[in-house]
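Morning!

This is the sequence you dropped in the shared folder:
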Amino acid sequence: MITTSSGPRCEGGRKIVPLTGELPYMSTPDALVVIETILREAGARQLDLAVFSDAAPSTLCPAGLLHGLSPLPAAAGGDGR
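The structure's back. Tokens below.
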């Protein structure tokens, strides 16, 4: 992930994770579950950062949902509702 002043942007999201068929046989069953969980959570985090960013569209990813939106100014004397 690359973080800029305007927020994170897509970098393709490609990661190589070498796993062999020996992993389930040479370790406890929990090792494969741990690796799957880490990859799933990392992928979800990267997807959230890309989708909910204010980054402009590029050749690698579409514009973030917050791209082009202006924050609403605070109401003077507002009661916070």
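Headline: The first helix runs from residue 23 to 26.

More detail when I'm at my desk.
O.
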